């Protein structure tokens, strides 16, 4: 009986594995197609970042979305992971860069001065063509490099450290800004933090979501803001969901706040409407 049970569970398990494998292959294929067709399945959304001191919205983070042909949504973390594991991320990021830079140019032509952050992976930074492709795209749309921020997580920065740091320094040299995303949950030692060529620290949302209820989170966030400023970085909090948290961050002299309390990530046209409403009230 036991043996039969084992057989069954092994059989079931293997079937599950095969299915998951097939699903991933199918999804990867669809993702490739979605990038090359550029038929609207993939699109960018933009989440505003509030500059606390001036109450202006001068920055957004670009966040990718994928709605498949059958109408189903794929979680970005899932398909970004898939793209990273298959190497497709380089093509996907090229699509993202082109879309976001052209959007920034479009906003400029409408008199909306907006800086945009783009999330990239370790493989993008390691890729020798990333820098030249970004420069080419900025030229193509006549966008000032200082309007673009590259967001990288601690893990992405540390992978291939020496080469990665050199690549980031080269980006900084042409005016592109560098942000350390999800700060506080990765493995950046303070020694490394000191060495990284970054402009911005982005505090992970796990410290921000319950900021108004947690004394410990308040201690962590306050000391990170102070440390960030002393090291010469601008500090952003992601995951601001309540007015209380926003007020706390303002009192702690955090530079920018981003989160559902202000707005969810929006398509460009909706963001433009949101900005009009925001400035009508503020
Ligand atoms: P991330 O870069 O850390 O982005 C922040 C995530 O927090 C986003 O999730 C955003 O929608 C979400 N968020 C913003 N405000 C709040 C809030 O107040 N509360 C909560 N609970 N969540 C909030 P999203 O859009 O699902 O993206 C997840 C991750 O996928 C991103 O994390 C980033 O690592 C990756 N990603 C998204 N777009 C891209 C892209 O274009 N390229 C690459 N390489 N990665 C991307
Ligand atoms: Mg990010
Ligand atoms: Mg983040
Ligand atoms: Mg994240």
TrEMBL record:
The keyword Lipoprotein does not apply. One of its GO terms (biological process) is signal transduction. Keywords: Membrane, Transmembrane, Transmembrane helix. One of its GO terms (molecular function) is cyclic-guanylate-specific phosphodiesterase activity. The keyword Aminoacyl-tRNA synthetase does not apply. Residues 24-279 form the EAL domain. One of its GO terms (cellular component) is membrane. This is Phosphodiesterase. It comes from Pseudoalteromonas espejiana. The lineage of its organism: Bacteria, Pseudomonadati, Pseudomonadota, Gammaproteobacteria, Alteromonadales. The chain holds residues 490 to 771 of 771 of the full protein.
């Amino acid at each position: 009986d036991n043996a039969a049970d084992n057989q069954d569970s092994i059989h079931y398990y293997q079937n599950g594995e095969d299915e998951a494998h097939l699903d991933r292959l199918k999804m990867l294929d669809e993702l490739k197609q979605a990038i090359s067709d550029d038929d609207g399945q993939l699109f960018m959304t933009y989440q505003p970042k509030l500059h606390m001191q001036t109450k202006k919205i001068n920055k957004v983070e670009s966040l990718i979305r994928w709605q498949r042909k059958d109408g189903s949504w794929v979680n970005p973390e899932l398909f970004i992971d898939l793209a990273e594991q298959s190497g497709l991320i380089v093509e996907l990021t090229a699509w993202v860069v082109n879309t976001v830079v052209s959007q920034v140019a479009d906003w400029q032509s409408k008199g909306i001065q907006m800086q945009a952050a783009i999330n990239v992976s370790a493989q993008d930074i390691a890729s020798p063509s990333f820098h030249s492709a970004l420069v080419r795209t900025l030229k193509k749309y006549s966008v000032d490099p200082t309007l673009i921020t590259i967001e990288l997580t601690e893990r992405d920065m540390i992978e291939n450290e020496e080469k990665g740091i050199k690549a980031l320094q080269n980006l900084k040299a042409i005016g592109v800004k560098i942000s350390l995303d999800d700060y506080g949950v990765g493995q950046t030692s303070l020694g490394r933090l000191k060495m990284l060529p970054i402009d911005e620290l982005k505090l992970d949302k796990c410290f921000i979501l319950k900021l108004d209820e947690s004394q410990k989170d308040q201690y962590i966030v306050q000391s990170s803001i102070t440390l960030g400023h002393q090291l010469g970085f601008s500090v952003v909090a992601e995951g601001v969901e309540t007015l209380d948290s926003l007020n706390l961050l303002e009192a702690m002299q955090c530079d920018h706040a981003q989160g559902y309390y202000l707005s969810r990530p929006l398509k460009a046209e909706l963001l433009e409407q949101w900005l009009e409403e925001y400035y009508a009230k503020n």
